[in-house]
Amino acid sequence: MDRLLSFIVLVGLITSIISSVDGAISKTSMTKIRKVNSKGPYLGLVVPNAFEMTPLLQSPSFVADGNIPFLDFSGRRFRIGRLENEKVIIVMTGLSMLNAGLATELLLSLFEVKGVLHFGIAGNANPNFQIGDVVIPHYWAHTGLWNWQRYGDGPGDELSLESSGDYTRNIGYLKFSDYNNGTKHRTSSDNLLNNVWYQPEEIFPKNGIPEVRQHAFWVPVNKNYYAVAEKLKGMKLESCINSTCLPRAPMVVRVERGSSANVFLDNAAYRNFLRSKFNITAVDMESAAVALVCFQQRTPFIVFRALSDLAGGGSSQSNEAGIFAPLAAQNAVSVVLRFISLLFS
Predict the structure, then answer these.
(1) 8 Å CB contact between 150 and 156
(2) CB count in 10 Å sphere of residue 247
(3) Residue 166 CA to its chain's centroid (Å)
(4) Which first-to-last residue range defines the signal peptide (predicted)?
């Protein structure tokens, strides 16, 4: 009898615990998500930081939803409303590849999103452009995934785990000794840092089969979005901030490539390497993560990045990003608003 009573009490306790748990998504959040999605689909706008998002929220074009203006989930605030009379959901990611990837994955998993527009500021690796220009790369790559080769091995030596298909020498490498300071006799020597080999990301699934991978290095933006972006050419942008003006009026340009890594790049040597090796213009810390998630989820996307600094290519006395970041952020927002109006005109 005592055992039966104990069993009944235990079952009641477990039932009580189970009934009080709503799972990973609470009932309140799930109800709101369903209501939001009933009005979809939406354009998803993904932005790294608050100072890049604020000009968008302050734009007269943005009108918050009257019923559910925002939904907070997993540390992110998803703002629901309209831009240029188009239904949108806006999310701020925070700095870095990890945050950008997580926020984009949440956006695409929780909400009915028909396409993603990512925008913000970036460093410039292309001497043909200047601060204030807004560039729209055709391809994005994550250039922070490396296989670091041991000292003594060279380009002809197989990388660790290369034979199993985990790593490759097809993309290319950076040889650190190429950037040693010369001696007084202008000779260079080997560098213990040796070589790093650039690697593609693993994307799942392949052909719809879970846990079967494919590899991706250069991820293209949506072909239709990229074609529409050509119409932005000639758009007028801000060129002065606090009485400091740029040498020429900024322009909107489609370019071939951009790259991202968890690095704030302020080094001229590496900037020039990325440009000569990969033909890169924009360098940042988030766009490739957004691109890779959208590629994996088969969601159309495009990226707009306003150049705010020369990524180490300017004067050692200057701090371009500190001066021109607000101007660049405003230019990025202006281009995004214009793009939305063109996309649905």
Answers:
(1) no
(2) 8
(3) 24
(4) 1-23
Q: Which CATH superfamily is domain 27-140+219-273+284-344 in?
A: Nucleoside phosphorylase domain (3.40.50.1580)
Domain ranges of the chain: 27-140+219-273+284-344
**N-terminal to C-terminal alpha carbon distance within the chain:** 76
Name the DSSP letter for residue 233.
Answer: T
Low-confidence ranges of the chain (pLDDT < 70): 1-23, 183-188, 313-321
What is the distance between the alpha carbons of residues 278 and 276, in angstroms, rounded to a whole number? Answer: 6
Task: Specify the DSSP class assigned to residue 163.
Answer: G
Q: Rounded distance, CA 235 to CA 251, Å?
A: 7
pLDDT in tens, 237-262: 999 988 888 999 999 999 999 999 99
CB count within 10 Å of CB 179 equals 15
Encoded tokens for 232: 């932005």
pTM: 0.90
pLDDT of residue 71: 97
**Cα separations (Å) of 70 from 36, 60, 77, 161, 231?**
10, 18, 6, 46, 32
Predicted pLDDT at 309: 82
Distances (CA, A) of 124 to 101, 229, 244, 268, 320: 22, 20, 19, 10, 11
Could you tell me which of 338, 342, 330 has the C-alpha nearest to residue 57?
330
